[in-house]
């Protein structure tokens, strides 16, 4: 029988830490003390911890290499050794995952700025249907509270921002990957399949009451724009003079405030109004000269 046959059952697991030979000293993390600085925590069985060491010596660093692999290669290239320590042996898989998570939280992950570990998660990957026990959750909560209590207000804000930025980066990366998969799948479809999918979408929307807009020619679009402008002008002409004056003064005050905020040189300059068409208003919105700041108020609104 293979030695891996019963690897997922019984108390055959252990938790280990890989140590950086370049950094000797007493490194204390709660009740754990290391002679060298730990840079990775994991769980395994049989010869798992020794596999890390052999892989570090043989593997070549590429663009896709993990943070742990790059650091391991750097330690060996500088002429130092990678040590290891078995934290706890004779554990079930669930117990090993819980102890691994506890140790990672206590020491702190490097990518979050909380410690030296190169772990990218808090552990527990690989077990189907894993549930963290109530005692472990309570312990993790107390560890985090203890860490926060030792921090200053500025450090707490920096930690919160670091975690928020990391979560935002993961979310954006996942969204980018999802969109890339959708785009690649769509590009791989034939023209006939794309048309079938689009037709099905249109039928679904029309069944819910959606009516597609007719496709207009360039002449029809320009005619609609002209009619809309004439309607706005007619609406403006029908307004009483006092209402027009109130609208003009309100727009004038808003424009003066916006300009004075963005350009302090506008203080003390006069503002004059010129009536023009909608298109000309956009072109002359920020027109200035040495003595007068001129704003164009559209008359067709």
Main sheet characteristics: 3 strands, antiparallel
Radius of gyration: 34 Å
Helix-residue proportion:
40-55%
Average per-residue pLDDT, rounded, comes to 75
Shape: elongated
Number of DSSP helices? 9
Distance between the termini: 86 Å
**Which residues sit in consecutive blocks of at least 5 with pLDDT less than 50?**
1-8, 262-279, 286-301
Which structural class matches the secondary elements?
alpha+beta
Instruction: Report strand %.
Output: 15-25%
How many DSSP E strands? 5
| Biggest sheet strand line-up | 2-1-3
What string gives the helices and strands in order? Answer: EEHHEHHHHHHEHE
Q: What do these coordinates show?
A:
- The strands form two sheets. A three-stranded antiparallel beta sheet has the order 2-1-3, sandwiched between helices. A two-stranded parallel sheet has the order 4-5.
- The radius of gyration is 34 Å and the shape is elongated.
- Helix 3 runs parallel beside helix 4.
- The chain has 301 residues and is α+β, with helices and mostly antiparallel strands.
- Strand 4, helix 9 and strand 5 form a beta-alpha-beta unit.
- The N and C termini lie far apart (86 Å).
- Among the domains are: 138 residues, no CATH class; 68 residues, no CATH class.
- The chain is 51% helix and 18% strand.
Set down the secondary structure blueprint.
Blueprint: E1 13-29, E2 32-45, H1 48-58, H2 67-77, E3 82-91, H3 93-107, H4 134-149, H5 153-188, H6 191-207, H7 218-238, H8 241-262, E4 270-276, H9 278-283, E5 292-298
Helix pairs in contact: 3-4
């Amino acid at each position: 029988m293979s030695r891996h046959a019963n690897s997922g059952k019984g108390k055959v697991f252990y938790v280990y830490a890989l140590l950086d030979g370049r950094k000797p000293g007493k490194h204390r993390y709660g009740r754990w003390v290391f002679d060298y600085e730990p840079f990775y925590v994991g769980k395994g069985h049989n010869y798992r911890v020794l596999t890390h060491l052999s892989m570090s010596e043989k593997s070549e660093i590429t663009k896709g290499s993990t943070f742990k692999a790059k650091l391991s290669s750097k330690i060996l290239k500088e002429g130092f050794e990678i040590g290891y320590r078995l934290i706890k042996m004779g554990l079930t898989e669930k117990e090993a995952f819980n102890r691994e998570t506890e140790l990672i939280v206590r020491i702190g992950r490097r990518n979050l700025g909380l410690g030296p570990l190169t772990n990218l998660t808090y552990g527990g990957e690989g077990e189907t249907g894993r549930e963290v026990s109530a005692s472990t959750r309570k312990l993790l909560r107390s560890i985090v509270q203890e860490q926060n209590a030792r921090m200053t207000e500025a450090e707490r804000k920096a930690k919160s921002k670091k975690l928020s930025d990391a979560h935002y980066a993961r979310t954006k990366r996942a969204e980018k990957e999802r969109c890339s998969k959708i785009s690649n799948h769509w590009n791989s479809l034939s023209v006939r399949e794309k048309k079938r999918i689009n037709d099905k979408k249109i039928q679904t929307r029309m069944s819910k009451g959606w009516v597609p807009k007719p496709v207009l020619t360039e002449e029809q679009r320009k005619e609609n724009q002209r009619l809309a402008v004439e309607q706005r002008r007619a609406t403006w002409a029908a307004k009483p003079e006092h209402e027009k004056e109130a609208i003009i003064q309100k727009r004038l005050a808003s424009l003066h405030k916006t300009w004075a905020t963005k350009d302090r040189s506008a203080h003390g300059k006069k503002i004059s109004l010129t009536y023009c068409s909608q298109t000309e208003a956009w072109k002359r919105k920020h027109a200035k000269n040495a003595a007068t700041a001129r704003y164009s108020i559209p008359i067709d609104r």
